[in-house]
Each structure stands twice: as structure tokens, then as C-alpha cells.
User: Fold Conserved exported or envelope protein of uncharacterized function from Mycobacterium tuberculosis.
Amino acid sequence: MSREEIRASGARAVLVGSCAPGWSAAVFDWSGVELESGSNSGYRPYPACDATYGRGVYAWRLVRYYEDSTLATALANPTRPPANPQALTPPKVPAMTDCGVNLFGFDQLLPEDGRIQASLWSWAPDEPRAGAGACALQGADGRWVAASCGDPHPAACRDAAGRWTVTPAPVVFAGAALACTAIGADFTLPRTGNQNARLHAVAGPAGGAWVHYLLPP
Assistant:
């Protein structure tokens, strides 16, 4: 997509980087908020996650990972093996997303690149489906699907300490908020891949759970 096509569509592109810190005076500075590029060669699926940053970092910081496979990088490190263990691969990206990586810098990105699909954590492929229902359900696999609001399912609840749980009994969507209040929590929805993974850890065994999202009419 060209810059002209981006402008014509009304979309916005955000440029991030650490190579021009002086620009922060003209735009914004996230020093102290953002971390980038720890080691990802040993990344493991949630909840084992990362050997570089602990859970506290992911809870309070923006974590960015990027890769560089340009000629300049090869010249700087000519002994790097062809199969770079630091590469952001499609199998590795879902684990990083579930663990709390907020922003990826994929190098040499191509149309239909598997890394893009691997970074998606909310709606399942081809969802929400027309006619399936107006309410959002986190399915047993952790991805969201459209469902009939009158179907009974556990509801996704989050307490003041940030802990996720589900209601002990299935409820229709309209009863989800009250059911969460009854166990001292709020009916809500995940807003990050890590929150979605935390909910899935408790909702998956129950077959899924309502999340607090209504599809627009």
C-alpha cells in the first residue's frame, strides 16, 4: 500500500523507533514506559513466557520486539546463522502476544504474511459471522465468535486486583453483569492479548465465556 492510498483511505500510520530520539520533542516520548528487543529465542507458550522480562514488566510497560534481516545487520554480525533464532516466526508470535508483547516490528513483511495472522488474538477467522448473533463469546480455543445473546454460557469477570474468573453457572448475555457482580467482579472483555490469554486459562475448561461486547446493529 502506498502513502497516497493510506491518505485516501483515511487510515493513520504510527511510526515508532529508537533511532531518532530528538523527535520526541516534536511528537511524544515513551522513555520509561516502553521496552524493546529482549531475547526471544527461548520464548515459550503462555504462561511460561519470557526469560528476559518478568510478568510485572508486561503488566505495566509497553513491550516491543522487532527484527532486522537487512544487509546492514548481516555485515554487523556476519557469523549469524541463516536460521536466526531471534527471528519473529509465525509459531513464536502467538506465544509472545499471549504473554503481553504489545507491538511487533516485522521485517520484510509480505501480503498474507503468516506473522500478521499469528498476532491476532480477538476475533476468530471469518468472525463475526452475519446472522450468528449480536453477542461476543470467547470460544474454547480462546478466539472470539458471534453468538446468540439468549444462549447460556459462563460470563467473563475481572476483579479489582485484575484477576480473571468466570461465573459458576451459565447465564444469558443480559444476565452476565449481575452474575459477575454477585462474585465481586465486573463483566468485561480482554483488551490485550495477555488479558485474553488469562481469561482463556479459566474459561477454556468451561468451553468459553461471554465477553462484554455487543456487535453494532
User: Anything to note?
Assistant: The chain has a mean pLDDT of 85. The chain is about 25% helix and 15% strand.
